[in-house]
Amino acid sequence: MDHNSRNFEKMSIxxxxxxxxxxxxxxxxxxxxxxxxxQIVRFSASSSPPEDTxxxxxxxxxxxxxxxxLEQELTQAQICNxxxxxxxxxxxNSSDKAIKVELATTKKQLKExxxxxxxxxxxxxKYNTEKAMWLSKQPQDxxxxxxxxxxxxxxxxxxxxxxxxLFMQINSMIAKLADSGDQDEINRLKSDVNSLKRELEAExxxxxAESARLKSELQKARSEIQNSINDGDKEKESMxxxxxxxxxxxxxxxxxxxxxxxxxxxxxxxxxxxEENENLKMKVEDLQKQVSAFTTQIHEKNLxxxxxxxxxxxxxxxxxxxxxxxxxxxxxxxxxxxxxQQKAQLRNQTETLKNALAVSEETLSKLxxxxxxxxxxxxxxxxxxxxxxxxxxxxxxxxSGRIKELQQALSDEKDNNAILNVQLRExxxxxxxxxxxxLASESRAQQAxxxxxxxxxxxxxxxxxxxxxQLLQDELRKTEEKYQEAKKKIExxxxxxRQQESQIRDLGMALNESSSQLEKTETKLQKEExxxxxxxxxxxxxxxxxxxxxxxxxKRVQEMVEDRKVLESKxxxxxxxxxxxxxxxxxxxxxxxYEEEVRSLQSEIRTLQxxxxxxxxxxxxxxxxxxxxxxxxxxxxxxxxxxxxxRDAEITRIENEKKQLEESLEKAEQEKEEAxxxxxxxxxxxxxxxxxxxxxxxxxxQTLKEKTDSLTRELESSRRRMEQLQExxxxxxxxxxxxxxxxxxxxxxxxxxxxxxxxxxGELKSKNEILKRDLEESEHTNERLKEQLEKADKKIEDxxxxxxxxEDLADRLQEAQILSGNVESKFSDLQKENKIELExxxxxxxxxxxxxxxxxxxxxxxxxxxxxxxxxxQRELVQLQNQLQDEKxxxxxxxxxxxxxxxxEKEKEELEEKLRENFSxxxxxxxxxxxLEEKLSExxxxxxxxxxxxxxxxxxxxxxxxxxxxxxxxxxxVREEVDTLKNVEPAENTEMTELTSENARxxxxxxxxxxxxxxxxxxxxxxxxxxFEERLKTANxxxxxxxxxxxxxxxxxxxxxxxxxxxxxxxxTAERRRRVDIHQLESLRDELDQVKNxxxxxxxxxxxxxxxxxxxxxxxxxxxxNWTQADFxxxxxxxxxxxxxxxxxxxxxxxxxxxxxxQQ
Length: 1160
Description:
This is GRIP domain-containing protein. This protein is mainly alpha-helical and about 1150 residues long. It folds into four domains: about 1-165 and about 690-740; about 185-340 and about 570-670; about 350-565, Substrate Binding Domain Of Dnak, Chain:A, Domain 2, CATH 1.20.1270; about 790-840 and about 875-1100 and about 1110-1160. Helices cover about 95% and strands about 0% of the residues.
């Protein structure tokens, strides 16, 4: 029976293993069927051309049939799998016949399903071949469209997957934020901060109220002290009256004693006298006791006064604490305000004097505050001195006199400061006036300069009349004298300004001295306070001396009492009475003195007691308030510290969370990039793995077939052993339960490892597909880069053509310059001829003209503009036109020259247009260069990305190797466990050998699979490294080529820029020459006019009236006759030419700026 039970358990274990293998095979078959179904659907989606409707319908029908059959097969496979699982569960409890029947049925069903799967695979392969044939028959455009559709679908799938990943990351981040703390906590913190601010404000208000209340209570205490002093004075008066009454009583008693002396015989009287004497002694003793009690009270009250002073100092300390609290709160407010506000800027240097005055006023106000404090201290000292003796009152009067003197000194200094302020204001007004005068003088100087200019212009216009020249010279001299006088006035004003500045500095020094004097007075006051404190100490010492004298008097009283006792011991009463009378008289005098002193001391003691009680009450109140204030202060400090700690902790927590979120975002982005790269790498690595996986799947199918055969054989053998196992089962149930559980666990672990390997194979397949897509995309990008390189080559050729055209333009410009040089040579010849004719006549006039020209040049360079020059030239042209009517021959030559100038200007315009074209071409070249640089940067980026991809591939390979090592270690552990089981139970060697053989076979298969995977991975690594090296080489070659092209383009651009600069310089030189020629023409015309005038004067010896105004302007052109308007067209042409020249100048400036920007 035991043997049968063991056999039954072994059969159940093997059946469970086979069940798991069948389940995994059915699952793999179903996954393959699903992948085939997806391929069919994709093919149907991709193969939809618009032309062949018949092929589409046939393919659609085939698709539908295949899909239906696949779905049916899937459902049947699932049902069979479910049935197998149920039947395997029932195997342990079922009989042998039922097991045989069910096993036979399951075998048949499995064979049918395997045959169906093979048929479906054949159909799929046929379908793929038909698809390939159909695609080969179709044109290239259709194939391209289909490929583009597939790529677009892949891109859409990728984008959707990326979107899903991003949504998942966003949700995870939102969850983290929700876990870490939402904005509710931030709002709560803000509300807490606001509440703390409100509490601080409330505590400020409360502290201010308490300070005000304490001040009022101090005033009340001072008023109560004064009232107690007045009550003490009243009690003094009452004590003095009582002393007078006692003196009267003593006088009466003396009279009675004298009457007793007369009546010696009466014994009763003597007895009465003795009794009265004893009563007097008792009274004296009572008085002595009272005196001693009063002295002790005085000592106690002195101690209490010292304590009160300490308490007052404690109150001052509490005040200081409150002040420090208020200052801290104010500093907190200031810091909060300073964070929100920015610092104000400093004012100008002109306001420094005003600021200095404000500072001096502030110092004066501070001194006033200090003086008020000193006055308060003086009042307190007065009150303390009033409590003491008259000597103290005299000292306080002396101190008050000193204080009054200091106050007078301070008032005098205030008056001096006010006077200084008034003087400063007056001087500020003077400075403003002087500035106004300077502005007026400057305006006058400008007017004078303008007058000089006008006079010079008049001199230029009135060269013909010598008298007018002299007048103008006189006017020039006068204007120069005025100008010099204005300069002198300006210098005088500057001197006065300097003097006033020195005075202002002196005033500032005086203010500094006054501030130093004020500081000295403060030190004097402090010294006087110290002296007053010393006087108070001296008065206290005097009080102590008076107390010592009181004690001496007490000793004397005791001695008198002892003497009285001695007198009583004598025999005769008469002697005693006489001694008593003498002693009584002396005692009366002393008693009077003592009584007076006692009354004064009692009054002082009462006042002091009242003061002490009041001060004790005040001190107790102050102590309670101080304790409350300290408790409140500590509570506030604790609250503030807790709030600051919580705020700092929360701020740090929020910052840490923020940093963590940023780091997590960066990590997520990095992981995303790494995942993309790993996907691209894994696609490349899994191309071959797919092929090997397909081969391994075929092998596994064969092994599964072999396993099914072996299972059938094992089932037959298990039937034979069932009876033996049932017999052995009853014996070894207890011993084998644990072994059974351990073996089941090992089997489950091995099954789970196989399932994990299958899942990894599926993931690798998916990664292989992704890698294929990435490879296709990289090929497309390579094609695009090749196209871009071809475009760049074309652009470089265009740039070369543009450079050739620019060189042609440079040659043309040189030719134009040669033509302009010929024109200038002809123009210079004409000028020489005219100069030779006019040298003899104009020698005398040249000197004056040169002087005037020098002065005019200076004035024009400083104050005239281009517009005034143009107007003057227009006027002079009008004069020239009026004079050129008489000389037609010269005018014709001048017209020819103007025409030549116009031609040269047109040529100049053409050259500028060519320059613009060159500039536009240069901009195009610069753009192409920038595009090439961008391409270089893109290539560098792609190179970096490839390096990162290779790194990630190496990381992924390392992870895979680690996984393989883990699986190997797990297999080793399983083997060790099997060996242990072998050592434990030698009786079950047959069964264990079977299990070990199966495990060895599985391990061999796994090792083969892992070795194949490692080889494929190594091969792929080598290929990828080779491809990467090739790509790097190509990228480096392209980089070097592009760099060389960039250098060539930059060198060409530099040459073009140099050529353009040369052209600009040539144009500028041509413009300068043209201006010089125009100026020479104008000078020649002026000289011709002068020669004509001189010639007419020589002809007509009689005086001739002056000619009409030759200076015609645009305003009086309307009054000209028709014969003048005919020649004015030349002037208009010249103005047009000048305007065009100005435009060209502006264009040249713009072009230069652009060239500078390009060079930068």
